[in-house]
Specification:
Length: 89
């Protein structure tokens, strides 16, 4: 597994709690690929009900990272075959 993947998986598991009474069991996955191009394939292959996408917090004086992240997130939302939840952090 790529460095950082274990950390990302732990964070996802902490963020999304499991309630057995609801009958919802998340399938966690971390991929280091060009997200905008792969999101549709990723959702279709897993028959995903929802895609949770981490968006980086702003950096620098003008928040350039946020602008670029929004552009990528907008592309993903437009291409995804399921609802997309974005979380900034």
């Amino acid at each position: 597994m790529r460095p950082g993947a274990d950390f990302a998986l732990r964070q996802m598991r902490e963020l999304v709690s499991i309630d057995p009474e609801l009958g919802i069991y998340p399938d966690y996955a971390v991929e280091f690929v060009p997200v905008a191009e792969q999101s549709r394939r990723f959702c279709e292959e897993r028959d995903a009900d929802i895609l949770v996408l981490g968006v980086p917090a702003p950096r620098g004086r003008w928040g350039t990272a946020t602008h670029l992240a929004r552009t990528t997130a907008q592309h993903i939302v437009g291409q995804a075959t399921c609802p997309v939840l974005t979380a900034r952090g």
